[in-house]
């Protein structure tokens, strides 16, 4: 059991192959679903390119799988702020995703100034900022400034929040 | 020439200079804002000019236009979030440069590239306007498709160290490009019945999601826990070595950018990419590409700016907008009761030449105002890392949401961001995916349009001289390694030069 | 947690709650006959047809003091059906209108939109823009009759270019013409370009045999003699363009692109009357008259119920053509 597990862990890149297969199948089924009873001029219709792309996705998935099984490994991307010697820190990633999605979920309900501040503060918190006095103030300031520039100065409407109609 | 001097006389009055300066500043400021490209910037600022006399208004527009384009590159370099499609390629090298503490140099290379490209482009407007007007319309779907094929060949040089992973990435991009209503027949593809996907996925959204959101998540997973060194700001100016590496890309930019801007459906995405590939091939520092090579900023920026100038030629002489921004400008002309077109130069000569003169002035002001600002902008990166990445996510979200006021766009950005995270984890390069999104739909459209024009005959793909020339170049590039084997002496390694010249012909 | 932290969090919360509403001008209140604020939804990009119409109308209303503040905003997507979805979703909102036109009617079908224009409350049709049948000056066709003969003989190689997606005005016009001359719409080789500008290039370059488009961007080229207009699609001849109507040339089609204003469904009768009245008054302003002239639009004002009947008929006409093509 553990052997299988570590074998898979070693070859987790097969997940990318699986993703490519799923994409390929998706593209192909979607292409084949396109009806043919509409007017079409020219030999190449709306199906041709998706079928080509879908098939190539499958082919590349197989080739990539072969590469992985033969010991090929994609090189994780390095960078100035990235420390690859440490294992992945999923807690930070999930917190960050949470902050991003919270903004998406809340923007329509409580308005942009609040949800934007939550996004900024949440993301900063996730990434290790613990200045509990400074962070919320910066988040609020940035959010309000953005709102005013877009909504009031440029006329690009953003939802203002529950108190918009009160004053 | 005399008319141009008259134009300068008009444009150089203090009031008009002031308008140009205000335009440049406003354009840059708004171009920096997320989600607002130059088209939107011009549309939003249109009301500011109501009540101004036409000459003043257009001088201001010229400033806004170039300023907006430049503002897009600033965020591309500093935050890895391109403000508009012409600035996507700039992020490839510009952002790594900024991370290495060479942000000021990247911005300066971009600013000077913008200036050079714009000035040469504008000179070409003056010299070539009638010629371009006559020949731009000869470029048709088969020619454009041939260029796309060439661009696809060029993709091979950005696939990265593992070919198969590069191709996988390209295919992911092509898949994203398929989403939307099929242009020619109105059939839905990969939209899953959602109206939000009917127009396809914008390349800027894909680029911001893959670059910025994907990167923020990836950094979060492997955050360096040691105390951060602030990103060094380094020397503020371009060094002699930098200049030596950038002057040629600056000058090559317009050769690629101007013709693309002038032809219908040319745009700026494909020429900036071609410029990037060309610079990579010609550079003596190939190993630096992907890690912050200054040529990769200088060339594409100059190209983008020159393509903007090319756009103006077709718009002024034919009344034909080749980009969204030009379409907005055209609308602006019409609100003043001026119809750009073949008669414009006769009817409104004073205005046109003042506009052209103000392009020169606007570009100069842009350089003068932005060059000193470059080191200041670059200091922005010294803020603590949590704020930097939180700010990037904030910025990307505002951009995605502001355009359509739709939560769907935020979710779409998140999903593509996760994809970008996975690609970073498994060493799939992000670049080919972006190129796939740009090239895929354009190539398919031009190919099918060519075949429709010839009523289904395959001859329709090669029945123009220019298409044939481009295909010959493609064949030469593909088979050159083979041919070289049979040559008695190995050819000197200056091979890509003819390729570039012919493409622009 | 220290007091400081609480103070900071409380300040932040209060600021995000209070500052934005305080900085934004107060909302509509009071029951005057003058409409004070109105939001105008534009379902395509800035610079597009609906956008120019909406912004021009809004400006005319403000200049004539019919309205204090009109906020025009763009919600582009899927040929206007994303904006339509939003309008239909704002049931009962009497302070929102959407600018739209013939293109949206077709887009509802091609995008398989769940919302129909028939769900909305039609307020008024504003303008009309006839299409023109146009060839380059080097084209072999000098009259519509010649073109139609060639077209009937060989619909595959006599290609038609248009600036709109299937279901849009430039697509509808040649399809209706085809039906009138006895060609199957399915056999028409229609090539879509991204708007009138890109089409113009390929007409000038002789890439397509003929183009069908709005007059707008083409006037100058026509005057300069680089384009030849074979016919206009409207019932009457168009001022400044030396070309017969389709009917005069023996093709029994009368067609024009039009634009108008609709409001969300389920608004009160009072709200509807107010809006119709507002547009009727705008229609009479000199500012609007001047705008029509400047943009080369034909006045085609039709208020409330008249517009409703018209919309229903257009919907039927579009649906028939698209059904023939297998698109609806």
UniProtKB/TrEMBL annotation, chain B:
Assigned keywords, A-Z: Membrane, Transmembrane, Transmembrane helix
A Pfam family annotated for this UniProt entry: TctA
Sequence ranges assigned to domain DUF112 in this UniProt record: 17-435
Name this protein carries in UniProt: Tripartite tricarboxylate transporter TctA
Transmembrane stretches, start-end: 17-46, 58-79, 106-133, 139-159, 164-181, 201-221, 351-374, 386-419, 426-443, 463-483
Matches recorded under InterPro entries: DUF112_TM
Classification lineage: Bacteria, Bacillati, Actinomycetota, Actinomycetes, Pseudonocardiales
TrEMBL record, chain C:
CDD domains in the cross-refs: PBP2_Bug_TTT (cd07012)
Source organism (scientific name): Lentzea flava
Protein name (database record): C4-dicarboxylate ABC transporter substrate-binding protein
Protein family membership: Belongs to the UPF0065 (bug) family.
